[in-house]
TrEMBL record:
Residues 1-29 are annotated as: Disordered. Coiled coil: none annotated. One of its GO terms (molecular function) is metalloendopeptidase activity. Residues 187-281 form the M23ase beta-sheet core domain. Pfam families: Peptidase_M23. It comes from Pseudonocardia halophobica. It comes from the Bacteria. This is M23ase beta-sheet core domain-containing protein.
């Protein structure tokens, strides 16, 4: 017959050792892993997108909407990829203590009141590094374009554009009064832009002064030779501000509008010659570049 203790508890056999509370040495979580390349690239992409957007705003303000091309805007939008919340980490409730990872960390760390967060990467924010490189490259080009346009306008030129990496300006302010072609029984080889005497005349683009001084029919003229062999002519000027052999930049003031030579009113006579010195119609060239002239060419002061 077996006896029970007063409270019904069974006696514990002496050969059975009383289990001791397991004492586990304190563990420290390893330092969070370094943020991956993808995370850094995601952040850099956002910065690159901001740069492109800022560069686009600056370029539009300096040179007008015609200079700011759509691909820049599209790239600025594409560069702004979503970024995951990298600070969120798993809690004790989200980790199965039976897994090897949990055992490596230590069950006592999972049950603590302030578990350390592990970085989590959002798989949807994968970044194509080639796109990031392209974004940074285009942002750099936007900034360079803005600098060139700003430099071309700094002397006072009324308009400036960038064509194949080179700056071009409208050579003076004034009204278009006479076009290229036959007129009064002779050929008029340029266009006339009427303006008051003394109005600044600017270099159409970078070049070297080939002629500066008296010229038959023009009174005084300036001729610039450009890198591709083309030349630009500025006739009937009041005063030349440059000398032969001098290098000038797009938008640099080179002369003043005058009324010298065979002229019936103050204006700039502007010509463009190709590398073979054949004279071309300047108006469609200016228009194709986006340089706008005011007037219909119906009234000529020449």
């Amino acid at each position: 017959m077996r006896h029970r203790s007063p409270r019904g508890a069974r006696p514990v056999p002496e050969h059975v050792a009383t289990p001791r509370a397991t004492v586990r040495a304190g563990h420290r979580l390893p330092a969070p892993p370094a943020v991956s390349l993808r995370v850094r690239a995601t952040v850099a992409a956002c910065a690159g997108g901001a740069l492109v957007a800022a560069g686009q705003t600056m370029l539009t303000a300096l040179a007008g909407p015609a200079v700011a091309a759509d691909p820049y805007e599209k790239l600025a939008a594409n560069a702004m990829l979503p970024v995951a919340d990298e600070t969120a980490g798993p809690t004790a409730d989200s980790i199965d203590p039976a897994t090897p990872a949990a055992r490596a960390i230590g069950a006592d760390q999972l049950t603590g009141s302030s578990p350390q967060a592990l970085p989590v990467l959002d798989e949807k924010s994968e970044l194509d590094v080639a796109s990031l490189t392209k974004a940074v490259d285009i942002g750099t080009r936007i900034a360079a374009t803005a600098r060139q346009i700003n430099a071309a306008l700094s002397g006072g030129a009324p308009q400036a554009v960038l064509e194949h990496g080179e700056a071009y300006v409208l050579p003076t302010t004034g009204r278009f009064t006479s076009g290229f072609g036959a007129r009064w029984g002779v050929t008029h080889y340029g266009i006339d832009l009427a303006a008051p005497i003394g109005t600044p005349i600017f270099a159409f683009t970078d070049g070297v002064v080939e002629e500066s001084g008296p010229a038959s029919g023009f009174g005084i003229w300036v001729v610039l030779r450009h890198a591709d062999g083309t030349r630009t002519v500025y006739g009937h000027i009041n005063r030349s501000l440059v000398s032969v052999g001098q290098t000038v930049s797009a938008g640099e003031e080179i002369a003043e509008v005058g009324n010298r030579g065979q002229s019936t009113g103050p204006h700039l006579h502007f010509e463009i010659w190709d590398a073979g010195k054949n004279k071309m119609n300047p108006l469609p060239i200016l228009q194709a570049m986006g340089l706008r002239v005011v007037g219909d060419g119906a009234n000529s002061p020449d």
